[in-house]
Amino acid sequence: MHVLWNDQIVERDDVRIDIEDRGYQFGDGLYEALRIYNREMFMFDEHFARLQRCAAEIRLQLPFTKPELKKNLDKLIAAEKITDGEIYFQLSRGTLSPRDHRIPSFDEVKPVVTGSVIPYERPVDKQKKGETACLVEDKRWLHCNIKSLSLLGNVLSLDEARQKGYDDALLVRDGFFTEASASNLWFVINGVLYTHQDGNLVLPGITKLRLLEIARSEGITVKEEAVPVSKLGQIDECFVSNSIWEVVPVVNIDGKPVNNGKLGAITSLLQKKYIEWINR
Ligand SMILES: Cc1ncc(COP(=O)(O)O)c(C=O)c1O
Question: Which are the catalytic amino acids?
Fold first, then answer.
C-alpha cells in the first residue's frame, strides 16, 4: 500500500515516526478527510481553508503550500489507482525531545505529514435505511471547531452509543443538540431545517456548508441555531452529514422511530440535490 510521508509517496512499511512525535504523544496535530469522486478530491479548496484556519488556531505552521499538498495527494490517489474513495491525511507538530508540554518554536520542530487513501463507494444502503442513535452528553472540549487529532471525546461518545446497541451518538451540551459523533446534525421541525450554528461547539463541516446553500436554493427555510432536547417530540426528520457518507437519515432516536423509521421528504431531497451537485 502506498502512503504519503511528508512529501514522498512510499510503501506503508517504509514510514518511520519517532516515538516522541507530538501527534502520537499529545494528539498535537490536525487532520482532514476528503471524498474522492472519479479520481478527484471533492471540495479540496474548502478543506484546505479549514486546515489553514485550524493550523492558525493551534499555532502550527503548515509545511506545504496548497498546490504542493494537492500535488502530493493527487500522486497518492494515482499510485493507489483510486476512482471513488476516501483520502485521509494528518499533520503532527513534529518531534520535540525530551517530551515537553510547551509548544516549540517553528525552528525547533518540523511537522510530520502522513496520508492514506482507500476505495469507498457511496453508502447507498445506509443513505436509504438510515441509522439509529441515542442521546449522549457532549463531554468534549470547547474547541470542537478545530479538526484536532485528539478525538477521544468523539470516540468515547460513539462507544457509549454502541454499548447501548445504537449506531451513533447525538451529542447534547447544556440541553441542546450539538452534532453527532463524526458528523453534523440536522433536524426538520414543521418544515424548517435546523442545524447548530458554527462556533466553538461544532466542527464547521464542509458538507454542511454545501447543504446549507442547496437547502436555501431549494427554498427551504433554514435556521442555523441549536435545537433544544425538549423539542425531541416535535422532530419530523433528522439526518447527519459528513464528507464520506454525504447525507444519512437518523430513523430512530433513543428507541423511538423518527418519521415512522423512514427516509423523510426533505432529507431525501437534500440527498438527491447534493449528489446532483457532486456529479456536476
Ligand atoms: C465531529 C464532526 N462533525 C462534523 C463532521 C463533518 O465534516 P465534513 O462535512 O467536513 O466531513 C465531521 C467529519 O469528520 C466530524 O468528525
Answer: 147
